[in-house]
């Protein structure tokens, strides 16, 4: 059974970056070959691309998890790891990307439009790329970063020139079936149409698309019935056509009251894409009134009676019968003229920029603030420090020293001193908390030591736990008494 899915929740995971390699070149008669560790490969991105051959989000309904491949680690002999392959996800034209809070990330309109929904992690640098004047043979490499992951919502908003608006069973599906080659489901009960139907209409030299969407009832703008599912597919329509059932037997309904109820719902609904499409609110779109089911004598009389009322509003009125196929030619050409007027007033852009996510401008690369949970502790936030933490091998002293150099050059150490941080204070960056030692100045020559170690980290004027314990025992007189006992024991032995 064919299904139309226009809203899905997608879980995405970009590829992780490959780790850098710490390697030393080994070759006969070349004892000092130097570092030759390669860089890790970049993780693959998750990319959405508009494909004209895709018309629904059904694939993502059954496969809601998308994971790109990770980059390969670097190797010796200056061999870089391979980059992860990007995962291309094909979506239909008119797809809108929302985050979990409902904020719009992208509006994808036009074949070929694309959006990187999750970026792959950067590959770590190998030790060959970390060589400097002070560090000739690094004994460490940088770790690859993790790829972005998250949850997004994909919504499909139909791309059509004309949208049919009307109560359930007003004859919208019948009308689109006779104007185009579309074959929607037609029945004599309300809400037969549960998913939008698109049709292509040719009127002279003009070709336009027409959308038949689920029926509208009072309260649709608040989500009643299929309201929001209905209204979402009208946001991109340039022309709205009111399809009115003139043969309805429901008490309290007539063409004028039906259209007034529809207009109230259109005015209450604010399109999320108004600023992007340039079409304005739904209440401001061009209107045309289609009085349907004129093949019934009572309906034809009612249509002639209410037509002057809509003429006063300045809306074109057409009396038709979708079943008898009368009045359709004039209606199709009238819609074609309205669509042409819109196209002349809104020429197509040569290049569309689908990304509308704002980028926050940062004044500084980092920020230091006191830790509210621990007195005397501090928290460092920022893109660079947090990325450097993720790249560091904390079981390698030389890598930790390299991290200290980078933080000092960035100005983190000066900011900690300005805020009154004491040696040994706890500093948290990302998921890592460590004791801060200001005695590892950046830019100084690195003392030669074994690979994977940094002698500067061993230089500290802090009194260790063993020394503090000894001093406490001295203050209590325990150490002097122990020495006297040792002396007396020595004399007795002699």
Automatic annotation (TrEMBL):
Needed cofactors, names only, are: Mg(2+)
Provide the E.C. number(s) assigned to this enzyme. Answer: 3.6.5.-
Q: Where would I find the OCT domain in this sequence? A: 358-438
Q: Which residues bind Mg(2+)?
A: 173, 193
- Domain named OBG-type G is located at 160-340
Domain Obg: from-to ranges = 2-159
Q: Which residues form the signal peptide?
A: none
- Outline the subunit composition: Monomer.
Q: What does this protein do?
A: An essential GTPase which binds GTP, GDP and possibly (p)ppGpp with moderate affinity, with high nucleotide exchange rates and a fairly low GTP hydrolysis rate. Plays a role in control of the cell cycle, stress response, ribosome biogenesis and in those bacteria that undergo differentiation, in morphogenesis control.
Q: What is this protein called?
A: GTPase Obg
Species of origin: Hoyosella subflava (strain DSM 45089 / JCM 17490 / NBRC 109087 / DQS3-9A1)
